[in-house]
Design a protein that fits this description.
Layout lengths: L7 H18 L2 H15 L9 H12 L16
Helix pairs in contact: 1-2
Length: about 80
């Protein structure tokens, strides 16, 4: 599935719709890829969205076979 050619929040919104479609079809592997794309896009929103430790943990999990990659939180240490 190609990545969305939109930008910013439009990309994240489009990816969310694709995730819903994949859920309906049971395409677990594709959901993981779409969540990864969404995370990569969200990191571009602001510098405080992530930090080196979060990025390292995320990459280690993916390198070791993690299919899902969904990080949540308020960002910027809850502010």
């Amino acid at each position: 599935m190609p990545t969305c050619k939109c930008s910013g929040l439009d990309t994240v919104k489009e990816l969310a719709y694709k995730i819903v479609d994949c859920l309906a079809r049971g395409e677990v592997q594709m959901i993981g890829e779409l969540l990864h794309q969404s995370w990569q896009q969200r990191k571009r929103f602001a510098s405080g969205v992530t930090n080196p430790l979060v990025d390292e943990c995320y990459e280690v999990a993916r390198a070791n076979g993690a299919v899902w990659g969904k990080l949540t939180g308020a960002g910027r240490e809850g502010s």
